[in-house]
Every structure is written in C-alpha cells, then in structure tokens.
Amino acid sequence: MKPIIRLQDVWFQYPGTQHQQNDWVLSEVNLSIDSGEYIAIIGPNGSGKSTLARLLNGLLVPSKGEVWVAGLSTQDEKMLWQVRRTVGMIFQNPDNQIVATTVRDDVAFGLENLGIPRSEMVERITDALSAVGLTGMEEVAPHYLSGGQKQRLSIAGVMAMQPQVIVFDESTSMLDPQGRKDVLALIHSLHQNGTTVIHITHSAEEAFLAERIIVMAEGQIQLDCPRDELYSQALCLQRWGLEVPLAVQLHHRLRKKGVPLSAQVKSNDDLVNQLCTLLSKD
Amino acid sequence: MAGTPFERHAIKELDLEIPSGSFVSILGQTGSGKSTLIQLIAGLLEPTSGTIQVGPYTLKQGGKQSADVRKHVGIVFQYPEHQLFEETVAKDIAFGPRNQGLTEKEIKKRVEMALEWVGLPSSFADRSPFQLSGGQMRRVALAGVLALAPDILILDEPTAGLDPQGKMDLLTLIHRLHRDQNMTVILVTHDMNEAAKYADYLFVLADGTCRLHGSPSEVFQKQKQLTALALDLPEITRLIHQLNQKVHPPIPTDLFTIDQLESYLLERLRKVENV
After folding, report:
1. Which residues form the ABC transporter domain (chain B) (predicted)?
2. Among B166, B168, B42, which residue's Cα sits nearest to residue A43?
C-alpha cells in the first residue's frame, strides 16, 4: 500500500532567515504515514512540530526536499487544492477558526467552497454536527459557545469536508477538562472510522493514546516508534524536557529502591496489578 | 447588561475568603465565573450587589476604592505575551511603574528587580521582546506585572501552551515568589495536577458560585462531586484510587507528589515484608 503522506529529506527555514546558515527549523525529516494510522507528535516548544504540521497540507512548502500527500507533491501549486482537501487541520485556538455567524453556516462554509450540492450539504452538516454533539445548536451564534464547544464546531467543519487525514495541532491545550475529554473522544472515533489522525500535543497522557509516537527536538525526528515500545522506555523523554507517564516514573523509582517489579512496565494497569500483588502478599 | 434581555449573572451569591500570604487556586469549567471573579477581586469590575474586601479597601457598586485596590493587585491574563508592545524588554517592564508615577531611579530599580524575580539575565533588558522564545516572552510579561510590586498576584492559566519543562519552571518561579516575598497568589487553572501540587487551598466554581472549597486533599476526596462538575482528579490521585480498588487498607489520597507516594509505598512494602 502506498503511504498517504510521505516526507522525503525535508528541510525548512522561514523566508527572510536564509542568510543565517544554521537557522533550519526542520532538517533531514523523513517520514511515512500510512492511511488509517493514529500518530502523536510530541516535542518541546520550538522543536518544529507546528512547522511540520503546516507542511503536511501545503500551508508551508519545504525549502529542500519534498512532501507527498496522496501521491501529489505540495510543491505543485496546481495540486494544492487537492492536497488541502485531503488533509484537514484543527488549530490550538478555536476562536481563530470560526468564520460564520451561526453554527450551521460555519460548517457550511467549507462545503460551499468545495461546491457540494445543497441536498448533500444539508446531509453532511447534519451528520457532522451530530458526530460532535452539537445537534440542536444549528442557529446559535458561535461566540455564545464555550471553548470546548467551539473546538468541536471547528472539528465538525473539517469533518464535513471528509478529508482522509486530520491534523490536530495542540487542539486541546486551551480547553477545560471536559472540553479536552470531548475532543479526545472525537479523535478516537475518527480513527475508528478510518480517518488518519495526527495529534500534536504536550501531554504524555494524550500522546500515549496514539498507536505510534514521534518525538521532535531541534527540528529533527528523534524517535519514531510504536506506543508500547516507547512506553516501557519513556524515561528517555526527560532528555527533551518532555513529560514521562506517572506510572513509568513510579516504576523506575521503586525498582531503584529494590522493589521486585518486572524489568519493564507496559501500562498504568500493569503497574497497578504488580503493586497490588506485592502489597497483599501476607 | 443589566435590565436588557441579555442580562445574566456571571457570579451570584458568592462568599469566599482568601487569607493574606496564601497560595490558592480557583478551578471550574469554562463559563463557571472564574475570570469574572478575578476581575472583581482586582477591581476591574464592580459587583452588581454585595461587597469585596481587599485588605483595607472595600469594593462595591458605585464605590471609589477600585483605583486603590489596583495598586496592590497584579493580574496576569491568559497569553500575556500578546500584550507586549515596547521596543525593548526594559521599556515594556517599565510601562506599569511609569504609569504609577514613580521616579526614573525607582523605575530602573523595579525593572532590575522584576527581571531577577522571573529569572532572566539583565542582558535581556535591551533586547526586543519579540525576538524571544514563547516561554521567555511570557516571563517578560509576568515581569511587567511584578514590577508594580503587587501584594496580590492573580494568574489566569499562566502555563497554557507551554511545554512540560516550561510549565514546571514557571510555576516553581511563582511558588518561590510566594514564599520569599510573602505574595498572595491566586492561580486560575484547568490543570488539576498544578492545583494539587502548588496551592494550599482550592475553590471550585460552577454556575457563578463556589461549590466546593478546602485543601487539595479535602477537595480531591470528593470525586463524585468533581465529576458532576465536569472536573478531573490529578493524575496521581487517579492512580491511588485505582490502587485502592484492590489494596486494603486504602492508600491515603492526600499524597500529591511522586516523592510522597514513593516514600509511602516503600514504607508500606517494608511492613508487608516483615509480617
């Protein structure tokens, strides 16, 4: 199967900084993403995560190397339209993504641009709003919605356009706990339904929900491995100032003090089970 | 918008007391009234009814003391780096003190003090704030508020958007200011881990009133009520609850740092060994 997204030796620097030789925001990035994958990208501030996200749908094009989306190069301006139909983006601040005066019109905006016939448009809007739990709010003005609701509205707008890939760029970082849970549940169901999901986040808890995790630092991919493989060796994330899952930290500390736990911990539940066995040994 | 069809009470029948020199956290869902509350405390909004006592000053509808209160309360809004505007870091930090009518000498002292408090080297003073990293810009914005030498520091989600290291650095810095300068800190946050780790006392708001308050261990024991208010437990408390489903007697739920949990478990495992 051909990958849905492929980056081939991608280098990037922002225009106007070319004279500074070493000012690469991204360098030597090679990455291949298959259709239907659920990937998390983590990395400290300034590691190039958001730049990478913007390269995936042609909002930015590489300074060197090439990005292929569904077989199309993002360098080819004639194909940009098609590239952006394939890869949808959800940003951090929901206020920056809403354009219309009612919830329904906001979802309709993208569809109108795609020239979808009215009857199909009505159906897609209904489906998208129901998927994000905003049914019944069609006539509400977006500025009356909470942050979490606005973010779900942004997702509905992208979902209605039925892209094959959706990139979430720190889309939960401005939300309250409920809003965060709602968005994570939506990401999960999008993945279940076959959409390729790429989630950029600072939270270890959120990142480890994905199947594959990519660690970025200093403009390069430092690690790219399946979730389970990274979990057991997650202590290495400290090297980049990233969060280590609590269960992994605790496991490491207790083992150092001689507690007979298994050499590696697979998940939160794994540690809980092992500790329970030890604590109720009498 | 009192008297119009859009009238809505953002805060109603709210009673709370924040002791001087404490570090408290205000929690609550979006729309629960947190931001309204901090603007009332800072004298930026007037209560429609009721009074707010800030030190020796009283704030009430039509009152005259809000200007005095503002001299003692520093408020750091969400994403404060968006409010940076001056050519240099020093000028940006000096903006507040200059508006307060301080002498140039005193202003210079305040700028140096604020830079030191937020842990930025004095060499930053002449740099443009717009060429700093996100975390550094946020520190400069914080320094601009600290330069007013407030007795009460209010922060509205100060760590949103920072990476884990940046979050920890910023909160450690705020906690140190609280301890060394005896500054009263009011932290509004969505992050239960932060509230549990740094605050001595928590207020949980919902629908404009205070539904729960107490020390972190008191508040985070009330799991059902918190869930009903759409709030989470700290990660460490969730892990302890999970362990307690199988462990008897239960592990205490007032352990909020990994150090505390580690020593407790080691102690307890030692006892099991000796039985």
Report:
1. 1-232
2. B166
Map out the domains of chain B as residue ranges.
23-230, 234-274
Return d(Cα B123, Cα B235) in angstroms, integer. 39
In this prediction, residue B32 carries a pLDDT of 87
CATH of domain B23-230: 3.40.50.300
Direct distance between the N- and C-terminal alpha carbons of chain B, in angstroms, rounded to an integer = 68
B-chain residue closest to A178, CA distance: B230
pLDDT of residue A74: 95
Per-residue pLDDT tens digits for B204-252: 999 899 999 999 999 998 989 999 998 989 999 999 999 999 888 899 9
User: What phi-psi label fits residue B238: left (phi over 0), alpha (psi between -120 and 50 degrees) or beta?
Assistant: alpha
pLDDT band at A20 (very low <50, low <70, confident <90, very high): low
Contact flag B235-A278 (C-beta cutoff 8 Å): no
Q: Measuring CA to CA, how many Å separate A160 from each of A130, A136, A163? A: 11, 17, 8
Q: Does A239 touch chain B (CB under 8 A)?
A: no
Report the pLDDT averaged over residues B83-95: 94
Q: Is B274 on the interface with A (CB under 8 A)?
A: no
Cα dihedral across residues B167, B170, B173, B175: positive or negative: negative
Q: Which of B41, B37, B31 is nearest to B13 (CA)?
A: B37
Q: pLDDT value at position A68? A: 96
Exposure b/e, B37-47, CB count within 10 A at least 16 = b: bbbbbbbebee
Average pLDDT over residues B41-67: 90
- Residue A249 sits at the chain B interface (C-beta within 8 Å): yes
Helical H segments across A217-259, by residue range? 227-232, 246-256
| Residue A185 in contact with partner chain B when CB distance is under 8 A | no
Q: Exposed e or buried b for every residue in B102-123, given b needs 16+ CB within 10 A?
A: beeeebeebbeebbebbebeee
**Distance between CA atoms of A162 and A196, rounded to whole angstroms?**
11
Q: For B136-176, what is each residue's pLDDT tens digit?
A: 899 999 999 999 999 999 999 999 888 888 899 999 999 99
pTM of the model: 0.85
Q: What ipTM describes this predicted complex?
A: 0.79
List the domains of chain A with CATH numbers.
5-243 (3.40.50.300), 245-282 (no CATH)
H or E element that contains A131: helix A118-131
Contacts of B231 in chain A (CB under 8 A): 177-178
Determine the Cα–Cα distance for residues B27 and B148; give it in Å rounded to an integer.
Answer: 26
Q: What b/e string do you get for A43-60 counting C-beta neighbours within 10 Å, with b at 16 or more?
A: bbbbbbbbbbbbbbbbeb
Place A228 in a pLDDT band, splitting at 50, 70 and 90. Answer: very high
Tens-digit pLDDT profile for residues A107-155: 999 999 989 999 999 999 999 999 999 999 999 999 888 888 899 999 9
Decide if A20 touches B, using CB distance below 8 A: no
- Chain A positions touching B272 (Cβ under 8 A) are 278-282
